[in-house]
Amino acid sequence: MSTRSELFESPFYEKLDENKLRCTLCNHRCVIVENKKGICNVRKNVGGKLYSLNKNLFIAINIDPIEKKPLFHFLPGSFSFSLATMGCNFKCRFCQNHEISQIEEREVVGNFFESKEIVEKAIEEGCSSISYTYTEPTIFFETAYEIGVLARNKGLKNIFVTNGYISKEATLKAKEFLNAANVDLKSFKEETYKKYCGATLKGVLEGIDNLLEAGCFIEITTLIVPGVNDGEDELRAIAKFIASRSKEIPWHISRFFPNYKMENCHSTPLPTIEKAFKIGKEEGLEYVYKGNVWGEGENTYCPECGALLVERRGFEVLKNLVDNGICFSCGKKINGFFRRQNGF
Question: What is the pLDDT of residue 70?
Fold first, then answer.
């Protein structure tokens, strides 16, 4: 691991009185006094200027199936060059990547690579996209932007796996490179977001709308945690919200397994996943998927004629019968970005 001695000044802040400043990257809009950091712990006020502490310091780099993001309607069967830096603007008690996201006052470290090196490596590995994932991409936005523009110019797509707290200002900038996002919609109650994530539902819903208005293709994931967000009324409220934006937005309902500060909780019962799936369908959502549960709940079916379009097993695509986004059976346009994969 390495660190860099130089600091990178962020363009996403406003100057306030007494050398204070306001970060404008996410919907926390942290007011940061001199020599202090924002909630994410990777933005610091030094002499009345906001600096990023994690620019191009990568704590994780992997090649993932795009289904792992999860994205089921965006280039299914392809691989995505996946990367992250340290830090996060949420404090989720059930975070599965807490070792690298919840850094508190630890030193920000990582392996330094130039942005052009990342793009070159993604191309060498045969990836169709670059995913900014594992931790919240908004908190390493300058890195993502620099890589993303280079990647776009080389024909690669760019993806955020995000908690949805991105600001309007950052979203407008992201239009220059961002193609798709999977957004975690963790709850539909303000008190739950405050207690378990250190954030607000309002900020997440604004972020989702920001991404949609920017023309970003999105899928939404809800991790169903027993006793936290598994009530029928809440699940229905989430499904209704998604349907109010578009019934074609894919909804991934994902099974929870104990982790981090919630290791003593139970895994999500399978009947709860089935209940959520049924609710999504009742509210008119055309594409509902069961995450962390292997089986037919991972497959894509035509909402018009019921034909099996994409067959999956875990993160593997076994069959892809969607040609240019059209159902082979009835001709319905299937929401997303599809291409026929060789051998499927």
Answer: 97
